[in-house]
Amino acid sequence: MAGPCTAREARQLYRQYPDVNVKDASQHSAYLIPTADGYLEFLKLTLRSGADVHSLDSYNGTGLIRAADRGHIEIIEELLETDIDIDHVNRLGWTALLEAIILGDGGPRHTEVVRLLVQAGADVMLADNNGDTPLAHARQRGFKEIVGVLESSGAR
Q1: Integer Cα distance of 94 and 38 in angstroms
Q2: CA 16, 22, 23, 24: dihedral to nearest 10 degrees?
Q3: The dihedral of CA 3, 6, 12, 14: what is its sign?
Q4: Of 3.30.230.70, 1.25.40.20, 3.20.20.300, 3.40.109.10, which CATH number belongs to 7-152?
Q5: Beta bridge partners of 23
Q6: Which of 1, 29, 63, 141 is the most exposed, having the fewest neighbouring CB atoms within 10 Å of its CB?
Q7: CB 93 within 8 A of CB 99
Q8: Under 8 Å CB-to-CB from 15, ≥6 apart: which residues?
Q9: Looking at residue 92, what is its pLDDT?
Q10: What is this structure's pTM?
């Protein structure tokens, strides 16, 4: 299954993975799968079923980080309604905001992800392990719209 899944497909996936917090050897769970793959209906089902939004993948990343780097706007919006840690730092030293910039393409979807994260209170000054800020990464990549979003939020 690729792309958004229907409510019916979400129920089928749920039947395969009824305990939404159990992880496999790769540290994937029924909750983490839709955050990376963009399955909004499946994500909603896992959240209603008690998904632990603080659950981490093999990179020590949250579902928010997984969704941010892939530009899954609807997943981001859903996760921002929970108490997920918006500034969690993964094993690479990156937050969801940094992943949206570093691994994103700078296009409309990733720009919107950055906008949503900033509006939700993401720390625009939280640098990576090398001391590079989200603004520095956006400038380096020539992501002008993202630079504008960050600068208007007080990033330096």
Answers
A1: 20
A2: -50
A3: positive
A4: 1.25.40.20
A5: 29
A6: 1
A7: no
A8: none
A9: 97
A10: 0.89
Residue 42 has a pLDDT of 87
Residue that is written with structure tokens 């993401």 in the block:
122
Q: What is the 3-state secondary structure (H, E, C) of 80-126?
A: CCCCCCCCCCCCCCCCHHHHHHHCCCCCHHHHHHHHHHHHCCCCCCC
**Distance of CA 56 to CAs 21, 89, 99, 102, 128, Å?**
10, 11, 15, 20, 19
The predicted structure's pLDDT at residue 21: 86
- What letters, b where the CB count within 10 A reaches 16 and e where it falls short, cover 1-16? eeebbeeeebeebbee
**Token pair recorded at residue 1:** 């299954």
Write out pLDDT tens, residues 32-74: 989 999 989 889 989 999 999 999 999 999 999 999 999 999 9
Token representation of residue 102: 């570093």
